[in-house]
Design a protein that fits this description.
- The strands form six sheets. Strands 1, 2, 3, 4, 5, 6 and 7 form a seven-stranded mixed β-sheet that branches.
- It is built from 17 helices and 25 strands.
- The protein is globular, with a radius of gyration of 27 Å.
- Helix 5 links the parallel strand 8 and strand 9.
- The termini are far apart.
- The longest helix has 19 residues.
- It is 27% helix and 23% strand.
- Helix 11 packs across helix 13.
- By secondary structure, the chain is of the alpha/beta class.
């Protein structure tokens, strides 16, 4: 560790306004200070007694609950739909007391909690809180009932330094089950058949076709987008008895992944990426290739009986606030006939085999549906962010083979002679690195143009420190891992990530030093909190290294950093220092705009775009803005993010919609 610390000390990490950038309008909450260490570790019997005291106070002396929280610093109460139909984080005794007395719905049905001792991971125990300084405290899982339903939670206690009393540091509740409506699974699963003589009854296939087409009823919810956001939302709604229709413009389920660049493989491991109700099988690879994931999405739709219209787009939409319903005109397209194309070209040597070309005759129809809610699930971001302000980027100034956004890039053409063509990729995050590696593997001379600093963590370090402790082979059940992760208020999560980032940087010291020598600008993330802070507060600015960093260190991929682009010119890019980087192909891996931009494009500014707020980044309490909660427009929701976020927050969205349909929200 000492050697790696010396190496880290020599790395020039950038700490500028750019490296600390977050979503505009969001709040950069400070990391919470770690509490003091306990003086004497409690025995098992003492831990049990301390946990029981918390339960007794909540159940029998609710007005005294705020007094259970820390005096020496702020404690946190985090509530995801347990006591209100909102996502809240309250910091400090005064705000907690006000929330519990004035806002929490506990008068008709008091909050009742129980210690969850069903598994060792959940029982009251002394657990580690801080990875670097070794802080420990008492933690335990709980179950609860409230006016809203049933759920689970996590409690963490630490010892006051002066009085040595055990006090609550963080208290988390999240609703799992809507009141009186257990999910139809396990012992509640549907029968699947109606025995007896029923002349003319439909079989399962006929019923499914009727459900998909909504010939006899309107969908309660219209979902736009058939990626992980749309699928998880539809699955959760189905378990609540809420009908939904997913529409997607693509011809196949999974095309939102299938059509992305050739080499794309998920950077997150399989244990982190399970979908609700149908986890990946035990033989699934640790890192999922995009086409395999696309096929799994197709299987998921079939296995869960989700309703999907493909080749479908929204023509118009309007919301009737009096009727509490939308009117949406959908253009739905069908393949009337198809035949092999006579214009198919033979594949280029070394290129991946393309699917056979087919000429299709498409039939269109316009259908009107009247859903009560709409969920936009078109990805965690909005429209491709093409930097159109750069002079020469439009109008055919560039005379090379290709100039495009990374969303339009699939793969490079293999070259017979290495270096016979040059490529430039603008950007320095995940997509840029993957595309640079694709160009390199196909024989191009590649230059990455880095506009601002990047947080880099190796896949090995990310697995070991950031994801592996919760999501790994033999680790906790994924529902437990999710509960444990999101039980951290954002300020505490940020502090935890500061510690974990220090460990990943120590682990990756030699790699990062090599990147620094190659001129690649590095940072430690917002407030030194690394990957998670970059993702949750900015949704970009990082790279999980799966091999490209080594190519940069070895000089096989060149880097131009710290210099702006002056113009796109005939033969490439002219930089602000006067250098012209020549290229045959230019790809702008420059990210995406806010999800709100897609809402504007699909639903219009006046109808939706001007009423919804910006999406992503923290609000003043540390909950995410605009997504998974009220958007600013009645009966309109945003849902997205990676597979792990989609898994957890899909239930949050579905429960709120169910409550709204029942007049509770």
């Amino acid at each position: 560790m000492g050697g790696s610390s010396t190496i880290v000390d020599a790395i020039n990490f950038v700490n500028t306004a750019s490296s600390q950038r977050i979503e505009p309008g969001s709040v950069n909450l400070p990391p919470a200070p770690w509490p003091a260490h306990f003086k004497t570790e409690p025995t098992s019997d003492q831990v049990t007694k301390i946990a029981a005291n918390v339960v007794d106070t909540v159940n029998n002396h609710f007005d005294k609950v705020p007094d259970l929280f820390l005096d020496s610093q702020d404690g946190f109460w985090r509530d995801h739909l347990a006591l209100t139909w909102d996502l809240r984080t309250l910091k400090g005794k005064d705000k907690i007391r006000n929330f519990l007395q004035a806002e929490a719905q506990v008068k008709k049905v008091p909050l009742q909690i129980q210690i969850d001792e069903s598994q060792a991971f959940r029982k009251p125990q002394v657990g580690g809180f801080a990875p670097v300084n070794g802080l420990k405290g008492i933690q335990f899982f709980i179950t609860f009932t409230s006016q809203n339903g049933k759920g689970r939670g996590v409690v963490r206690l630490v010892q006051e330094h002066k009085t040595e009393e055990w006090k609550i540091w963080t208290f988390f509740l999240t609703l799992d089950e809507y009141r009186g409506h257990p999910e139809p699974k396990g012992p509640n699963r549907p029968k699947g058949v109606e025995h007896g003589g029923q002349p003319g009854r439909m079989n399962w296939a006929q019923k499914r076709q009727e459900e998909i087409n909504f010939t006899k009823k309107e969908p309660d919810v219209l979902i736009l987008g058939c990626g992980q956001g749309g699928l998880t939302a539809a699955a959760r709604l189905k378990m609540l008895g809420v009908s939904s229709l997913i529409i997607d413009r693509n011809p196949r389920i999974g095309d939102n992944w299938r059509n992305r660049y050739h080499q794309l493989v998920l950077h997150d491991p399989v244990w982190y990426d399970h979908l609700p109700y149908l986890p990946f099988p035990d033989h699934w690879p640790i890192f999922t290739p995009k086409d395999k994931l696309a096929d799994w999405f197709d299987s998921y739709v079939k296995a869960l009986d989700l309703n999907v219209w493909l080749r479908s787009t929204i023509v118009s939409s309007e919301y009737d606030s009096a009727r509490k319903a939308w009117k949406v005109v959908i253009r739905r397209s069908f393949v009337k006939s198809s035949r092999p194309s006579s214009s198919s070209n033979p594949p280029t040597a070394g290129a991946p085999a393309a699917p056979p070309q087919v000429e299709e005759e498409i039939e269109h129809m316009e259908l009107t549906v009247y859903p009560k809610h709409i969920i936009q699930c078109t990805g965690g971001s909005g429209k491709p962010n093409m930097p159109t302000s750069i002079p020469g980027i439009a109008g055919g100034v560039f005379k090379g083979d290709r100039l495009c956004h990374s969303s339009q890039f699939t793969t490079a053409t293999p070259l017979a002679k290495r270096g016979s063509k040059k490529a430039i990729v603008v950007g320095a995050c995940n997509s840029s690195h993957d595309i640079c590696q694709d160009f390199y593997e196909r024989g191009y001379d590649v230059t990455m143009v880095q506009r601002s600093s990047t947080f880099v963590v190796s896949s090995t370090a990310a697995l070991k420190y950031l994801i592996g402790p919760l999501y790994s082979e033999g680790g906790p059940a994924v529902e437990d891992a999710d509960l444990f992760l999101w039980s951290h208020p954002s300020e505490v999560l940020k502090t935890l990530q500061q510690d974990l980032t220090k460990l990943t940087i120590e682990h990756d010291a030699e790699l990062l030093a090599g990147l620094d020598r190659a001129g690649f600008k590095l940072d430690k993330g917002v407030d030194g909190a690394g990957l998670f802070a970059k993702y949750l507060q900015r949704q970009g600015g990082y790279y999980i290294d799966v091999g490209t960093s080594k190519l940069i260190v070895e000089g096989k991929i060149a880097v131009k950093s710290g210099v702006g682009i002056a113009a796109v010119v005939e033969k490439g890019l002219k930089m602000e220092d006067g250098e012209v980087l020549e290229a045959d192909e230019i790809v702008f891996a420059t990210g995406y705009s806010n999800m709100r931009s897609t809402a504007r494009e699909v639903f219009g500014n006046e109808q939706v775009g001007d009423k919804v707020g910006d999406v992503w980044g923290w609000n003043e309490e540390g909950e995410m803005r605009g997504i998974w909660t009220k958007s600013g427009h009645e009966a309109f929701w945003f849902h997205g993010g990676n597979l792990a976020l989609a898994r957890y927050y899909s239930r949050v969205v579905a429960l709120q919609i169910k409550a709204s349909l029942d007049g509770l929200l």
